[in-house]
Amino acid sequence: MERRYALGKTLVAYFSCSSVTEELAKALASVVEGDLFRIEPTVPYTDDDLNWNDRNSRSTIEMQDRKSRPEIANTVQNIDGYDIVFVGFPIWWYVAPTIVNTFLESYDLSGKTVIPFATSGTSGVGATDKHLHPSCSKSTVWRPAMRFGQPFNKSEIAVWVDSLNL
């Protein structure tokens, strides 16, 4: 039997350049019965942009500049209507991509609970919380980031959500 959560209105926002984070976000949205929002860059990332072995690739340059804020092409309608915001992303250089900071800084999340989740083949969340948390107001309820490897399943996600005591 699938667990049902008595959460407030929930948003699952995610940034994904491959299907991995997107699949996790969809599974999480199903578990928490939340709305799904894909964070899309104004200028989409190409394979060359994502080549972390190239010191001149767009992603490498953005991640070397912690003040980098890639522009987002879309917006969440009625962010005020959400109580809980899960935000997902792949781990890049042991932290969240800076476009996630752009997303968090684009909205007043005061009084909301923000819960980051990440995908990575081998890396942990590293300094993700340290770099993302300041992008929210001081009155945002922040929960520590959770990393998921592959494969993941709804049961694993449900156990994590249950552990949050929302």
Per-chain topology:
Blueprint: E1 10-14, H1 19-32, E2 35-38, H2 58-64, E3 84-90, H3 98-105, E4 113-119, H4 128-132, E5 141-142, E6 146-148, H5 154-163
Parallel strand pairs: 1-2, 1-3, 3-4, 4-5, 4-6
Task: Write structural notes for this entry.
The chain has helices at 19-32, 58-64, 98-105, 128-132, 154-163, and strands spanning 10-14, 35-38, 84-90, 113-119, 141-142, 146-148. With 166 residues, the chain is an alpha/beta fold. Strands 1, 2, 3, 4, 5 and 6 form a six-stranded parallel beta sheet that branches. The protein has a single domain (10-163), classed as Rossmann fold.
- The figure for the number of domains is 1
Order of helices and strands: EHEHEHEHEEH
Give a quick account of the main beta sheet: strands, pairing sense, barrel closure: 6 strands, parallel
Shape-level CATH architecture? 3-Layer(aba) Sandwich
Quote the distance from N terminus to C terminus. Answer: 20 Å
Q: What is the count of DSSP helices, taking H or I runs of 4+ residues?
A: 5
- Determine the fraction of residues in helical runs and give it as a percent range: 25-40%
Query: Helix- and strand-based class?
Result: alpha/beta
Q: What is the rounded Rg?
A: 15 Å
CATH homologous superfamily classification = Flavodoxin domain
Total DSSP E strands? 6
Shape: globular
What's the CATH topology name?
Answer: Rossmann fold
The chain-level mean pLDDT equals 91
Tell me, what is the CATH class?
A: Alpha Beta
Taken as a percent bin, the fraction of beta residues is 15-25%
Low-confidence residue ranges: none
